[in-house]
């Protein structure tokens, strides 16, 4: 995953470039999504908890994912007329992968309502492991937006 030090963020955001602000927001959204992925992982690698804990964990990861996905869509729009060549293709690849991830997540949530989870905890845990693997892959792919935003921020765009 692409990481920035506090000093790098400070240097970039001092310019108040829109790309620097988006870069900082995307980093925060990615970090929060990773926290929520790890939380669900902790829950699903233990004994079956109360349904409330599962519900809250699922809601939090869906909210973090929605925030990252919404921000990524804004970034795609922002970058659309500012890039060319391979960079445009990279952004399109992330955009398509985001759409695929959204469909995959919706199918997962639809297949695993709380009653189904209660009846087949291990099946849910296995399915949850698989969806989290996809989410991590998507997060790494979305990381390709960081250097694009950084280049623009360096130019004050």
> N-to-C terminal Cα separation, in Å?
23 Å
Question: Can you identify the CATH class?
Answer: Mainly Alpha
Globally, the shape reads: elongated
Low-confidence stretches: none
Oligomer: single chain
Number of strands: 0
- The CATH architecture designation is Up-down Bundle
Helical content stands at: over 70%
Overall structural class, as computed from helix and strand content, comes to mainly alpha
Strand percentage lies at under 5%
Question: Please, what is the average pLDDT?
Answer: 91
Radius of gyration: 17 Å
Tell me the number of helical segments per DSSP (H or I, 4 or more residues long): 7
Q: What sequence of helices (H) and strands (E) makes up the elements?
A: HHHHHHH
Number of domains: 1
Main sheet record: none
Question: Remind me, CATH topology?
Answer: Four Helix Bundle (Hemerythrin (Met), subunit A)
């Amino acid at each position: 995953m692409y990481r920035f030090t506090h000093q790098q963020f400070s240097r970039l955001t001092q310019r108040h470039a829109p790309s620097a602000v988006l870069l900082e927001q995307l980093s925060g959204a990615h970090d929060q999504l990773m926290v929520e992925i790890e939380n669900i992982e902790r829950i699903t690698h233990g004994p079956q908890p109360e349904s409330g804990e599962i519900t809250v964990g699922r809601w939090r990861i869906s909210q973090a994912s929605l925030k990252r996905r919404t921000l990524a869509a804004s970034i795609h729009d922002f970058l659309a007329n500012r890039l060319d060549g391979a960079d445009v293709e990279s952004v399109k690849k992330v955009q398509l992968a985001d759409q695929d991830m959204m469909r995959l997540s919706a199918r997962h949530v639809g297949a695993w309502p709380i009653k189904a989870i209660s009846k087949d905890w291990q099946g849910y845990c296995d399915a949850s492991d698989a969806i989290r693997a996809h989410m991590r892959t998507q997060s790494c792919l979305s990381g390709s937006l960081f250097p694009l935003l950084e280049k623009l921020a360096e130019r004050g765009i």
